Amino acid sequence: MVDVVDANDNVLYAVTKEEAHRKGYLHRTVIAELKNKNNEWILVKQAPDRQDKGLYVSPVGGHVRSGETLEDALKREVLEEIGITDFTYTYIDKAVFYREVLGRKENHLFILFEVFSDNDIRLNGESVGYKHFTTQQLKKELRENPEKFGKAFHFVVRTFYSNLLG
């Protein structure tokens, strides 16, 4: 179950995740950008069965369960997707991201965090690899090879990190 929210993040009611995607209801998703002590960005490459197959995306992204706190959802998703339990984090902001993909109407309120850790990453089956990028490398890749990155990551960059586009 997920909470359907309005544009101001007020909870309206709960539905299944499948119903939220079928009907395009706005619901919460935590997204996290992973950085290490060298301030490198660590992005994951999506598995072939994922919506952004073969593309680099934010290493953490997942639904907030109905009634779950944002912090608990973040900790759960970080553990599930990259296998890290020891990290610090900073809340960045929220924005609505909508797309239709794989027969779903994904209407997500992205709740963005930055996660900081130097621990080893253990990927789950959603990703097939990861790569470290300095800020300069990421800027260059986004400019010269934008097709290497997933649509949701492009949205995150445009919305929260416009400095990477210059």
Layout of helices and strands:
Elements: E1 2-5, E2 11-15, H1 17-23, E3 27-35, E4 41-46, E5 56-57, E6 60-63, H2 70-82, E7 88-101, E8 104-116, E9 127-133, H3 135-144, H4 151-160
Parallel strand pairs: 3-8
Antiparallel strand pairs: 1-2, 3-4, 3-6, 4-5, 4-9, 7-8
What can you tell me about this protein's structure?
There is one protein chain. With 166 residues, this protein is α+β, with helices and mostly antiparallel strands. The protein has one domain: Nucleoside Triphosphate Pyrophosphohydrolase, CATH 3.90.79.10. Helices cover 24% and strands 39% of the residues. It has 4 helices and 9 strands; from the N terminus they run ββαββββαβββαα. Strands 3, 4, 5, 6, 7, 8 and 9 form a 7-stranded mixed β-sheet that branches. Strands 1-2 form a two-stranded antiparallel sheet. Strand 3 and strand 4 (41-46) form a beta hairpin. The longest helix is centred in the middle third of the chain and has 13 residues, at 70-82. 26% of the residues are buried.
CATH topology: Nucleoside Triphosphate Pyrophosphohydrolase
Query: What is the number of strand segments?
Result: 9
Q: Count every helix, treating DSSP H or I runs of 4 or more residues as helices.
A: 4
Q: Strand share of the residues?
A: 35-45%
* Secondary-structure arrangement, i.e. CATH architecture: Alpha-Beta Complex
